[in-house]
Amino acid sequence: MNWFTKTFSSTIGRKIIMSVTGLFLCSFLVVHLIGNLQLFNDDGGAAFNLYSHFMANNIVIRIMEIVLVLGFLFHIYDAIMLTRRNKAARPIDYAETRPQENSTWSSRNMGLLGTVILVFLIIHLWNFFVPARFGGLEGVVIEEVEYDNLYLKVVQSFQVWWYVLIYVISMIALAYHLIHGFQSAFQTLGLDHKKYTPFIQSFGYAFSVLVCLGFAAIPLYFFFKF
């Protein structure tokens, strides 16, 4: 196992882990967004509450939540370690640099973008996930069965202007993070070819913008609707 430990603790090994976990988290974003689109149903939140109940009580989903948490932790840990190694390798900046000529703004600020996303994630989990999993939600009866009314929690949360603002700003940060990270992940995994790279770049850009627009539309919809 010594070779395994050395491989995945090396710089390239950590980049591979970053890429794999990053793409896995992208798949989670798609699934999460599809579920959240139930909020737009004009049914008083019935579809969303049923969806939330299924997600909270399905054993496969609960196991995947553990995998998801591990994915986040590995992604964050490797990001910190790679940043520290990069700074240690070049403790003193060059006297004259023009980073804007050689890289994009998002690639130069992945640490800042990641920090914004992490802070948002903590707030978001505390506001929605903790009450949904550990109690504190009002009940609602759907077809003579009582469920937790997570839909009401969503409506109430998105009436708070500063929370909506944080949410939208975080989605902008996530979009920039994904625009660079999506293409970078494929490049790290060796899936970089002049024939396919332009498509990967275009798809990654469209994916990043559309997914984050979808998430940002939810708080704005409820803020202006009620």
UniProtKB/TrEMBL annotation:
The protein's matches in CDD domains, at most eight in alphabetical order, are given as: SQR_TypeB_2_TM
Q: Which Gene3D superfamilies match?
A: Fumarate reductase/succinate dehydrogenase, transmembrane subunit
Q: Does the keyword Signal apply?
A: no
Q: Which SUPFAM superfamilies does the UniProt entry name for this protein?
A: Fumarate reductase respiratory complex transmembrane subunits
Supply one GO CC term from the record: membrane
TM ranges: 16-39, 59-80, 110-129, 160-182, 203-224
Q: Which InterPro entries match?
A: Cytochrome_b-558, SQR/QFR_C/D
UniProtKB keywords: Membrane, Transmembrane, Transmembrane helix
Q: Which residues form a coiled coil?
A: none
* Protein name in the entry: Succinate dehydrogenase / fumarate reductase cytochrome b subunit
